[in-house]
Amino acid sequence: MRDFYPEDMRLRNHVFAAWRQASLQSGFSEYDACVVESLDLLKRKAGEEIVEQIYHFQDKSGRDLALRPEMTPTLARMIAARQGSLTFPLRWFTMAQCFRYERMTRGRKREHYQWNLDIIGEPTVAAEAEVIATAANAMHALGLDARHYRIHFSSRALLAELLSKLGITPEHHAATFLALDKRGKIADEELETLMRNEGIRADLIPAVFKLLEVRTIEEAHALLGERSAALAEIETFRDMLAAYGIAELAFFNIGVIRGLSYYTGIVFEAFDTDSSLRAIFGGGRYGKLLASIGGADIAGVGLGFGDVVIAELLADKGLASTDGMDPLDLIVGFMQPEQHMPAVKIAAAFRQQGKSVHLALAPEKPKTFFARSGGSGARQAIYLGPDDIENGIIRIKTLADRSQVEMPLCELLGPAPAA
Ligand code: HAM
C-alpha cells in the first residue's frame, strides 16, 4: 500500500484533474461509495483472478465484508437500487480506491486509484466509442497521444460466434474466454488442461488456439462465412472511432479478451506503444451484470483506468514533472517578534482577497527569509522590519524579477483593499 508524500500527491492530483476534466467535458456525473463492500456482491463464479485477490474480513457482528477490488459491482448495486427513478442512458464516473492482493510487479500494486467511466442503458456501440473517446481526451490532457499508446479492441460476442462455429457450445464460452485471457501468462499446455477440465473437447482446442491468429475483422468475417450481428457491431464501432478522430489509436486484436467474466460484447485495453508496461486502462460491455445481481436487464459499458501505470508512463516520457511546488501567491515574513502581529494581519487580509499566503511562524533574518522565499514557489514576498511598521508602508517584492511596489498598510487593512 502506498504513502503519498506531497510530491506524490502533486502528481496524483495532476492525473485526477485530467480524469475529472475529461469526464465533465463528456457530460459524466461523479458518484462515490464506501471502499467496504459486502463480500457476496464481489464474489462470483471461480476462474477470475480478481476473486482470489479480495481482501476480506468479518466485522464484529460476523458479516463478511471486503475492500473492493474494483468499482463495477458497486456501481451495478447502486444502479439496481434506484433503477426505477434513474433516467437511462446515464453516464457516471468515479475515481475509486481499489484493493487487490496481487503479486506486486511493475504497474501492479496492492492498492490503486481507478478512474471508472460507465454508461448504463445504451444498447448500441455508441456507448463504447464515447467512453473510449473520453479516456483519449484525458490521455491528451496529460500530453499523451498516438505516439505513446494504443487501444486494442475485440469483441467477446464475435469470439463467441467463432467458437460456436468451431463446435464449442455456449455453456463453455465463459471458461474458454478466461482461459484464453491467460495466454502468454501461462504455458499453452496448462491452458489446454484448464480448458479440458472445463469440459471443452480436447480435439477442438488446437482450433481454438488457431482463432487467436486472426489478424483483421475481415479475416474473422471470412471464418464466420456470413455477416453476423457481432460483426456488424464491431464494424460500426470502428467507424465511430474514426468519426471521433481516434482511429489511429485503435487496433483490432482478437487476443484482447479481458480477465473479468461479466464482459459480453466489445472489450478493449490500452497499452504503451513500447509494450513495456501493463495495461493503462481496460473495459468493455457487460450485458447481464445488473440482472445477475437482481436488477433489470440493462446493459452497461465502461472502463477502469488506474493511477499506477499512467504515472510510470508519464515518468518514462518526461511528462510527470509537476512544477515541484504547490501554487502560492505570496510569502510573508518578519524580522522581530514586534512585527509578528502586523504580519498576521497582512497575511489574513491577502487570504481574505482569495490569495494563497505562506506566513512565517517565527522571526527570521532577511537572508534566511529570502533564501526560503526563492524555494517556496511563491510569486511575491513581503518581509517586515521595524521601519516598515513605523512608516506604515509595506514592500511587495515580485520574486522573478526582484521588482518592488509599495503599499500603504492602511490601504490593505482598510475595508476595500486593492488587489
Ligand atoms: P481491470 O482491467 O481489472 O478492470 O482494471 C482496470 C485498470 O485498473 C487496469 O487497466 C489498471 O490500470 C488498473 N489496475 C487494476 N489492478 C491494478 C493493480 N493491482 N495495481 C495498479 N493498477 C491496477 C476493472 O477493474 C473493471 N471493473 C473496469 C470496468 C469498469 N469495466 C467496466 N467498467
Number of strands: 16
Instruction: Show unreliable segments.
Output: 415-419
Count of discrete alpha- or pi-helical segments spanning 4 or more residues: 17
Return the CATH architecture of the largest domain: 2-Layer Sandwich
Features:
419 residues; alpha+beta; BirA Bifunctional Protein, domain 2; Rossmann fold; 2 domains; 8-stranded mixed beta sheet; 5-stranded mixed beta sheet; 17 helices; binds histidyl-adenosine monophosphate
Task: Tell me about this structure.
This protein has an eight-stranded mixed beta sheet. It has a five-stranded mixed beta sheet with strand order 13-12-14-15-16, with helices on both faces. The protein has helices spanning 6-25, 39-42, 49-52, 72-82, 126-141, 156-166, 173-181, 188-197, 205-211, 217-224, 229-243, 289-292, 307-316, 340-352, 366-374, 386-391, 409-413, and strands at residues 29-30, 36-38, 55-58, 64-67, 90-99, 111-120, 149-155, 250-252, 266-272, 281-286, 300-306, 328-334, 357-359, 378-384, 393-398, 404-408. Strand 12, helix 14 and strand 13 form a beta-alpha-beta unit. The longest helix has 20 residues, at 6-25. The protein is α+β, with helices and mostly antiparallel strands and 419 residues long. Helix 1 runs antiparallel to helix 5 and helix 5 packs parallel to helix 11. It folds into two domains: 6-316, BirA Bifunctional Protein, domain 2 (2-Layer Sandwich); 328-413, Rossmann fold, CATH 3.40.50. It binds histidyl-adenosine monophosphate. Residues 70, 72, 100, 102, 108-109, 112, 114, 116, 118, 260, 279-283, 302-306, 308-309 line the site of histidyl-adenosine monophosphate (HAM).
